[in-house]
Write a sequence for this structure.
């Protein structure tokens, strides 16, 4: 998958995409979301910002955590249905 939004670009093949994290840290979850989200997902930038915040401050605010929970649910639903771009070989 190629992530490009003006400042970030990388590409993973489907076999390189990590499985859903077993740990319960926000940093692991956010890293996974960034790897699997489609590049044009409207929440992609928000997730990147939350990862930065989490690394800097050691966690998320309650509002960020609530929003990330909704993003996780949506992305996981698409992941389970194999609807994400990263799950197809291009």
């Amino acid at each position: 998958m190629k992530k490009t939004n003006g400042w970030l670009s990388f590409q993973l093949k489907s076999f390189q995409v990590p499985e859903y994290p077993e740990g319960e840290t926000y940093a692991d979850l956010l890293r996974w979301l960034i790897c699997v989200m489609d590049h044009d997902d409207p929440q992609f930038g928000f997730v990147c910002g939350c990862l930065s915040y989490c690394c800097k401050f050691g966690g998320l605010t309650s509002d960020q955590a609530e929003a990330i929970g909704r993003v996780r649910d949506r992305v996981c639903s698409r992941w389970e249905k194999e609807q994400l771009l990263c799950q197809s070989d291009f």
Notes: The two ends are 8 Å apart (CA to CA). The beta strands are 2-4, 9-11. Helices lie at 26-36, 44-57, 62-80.
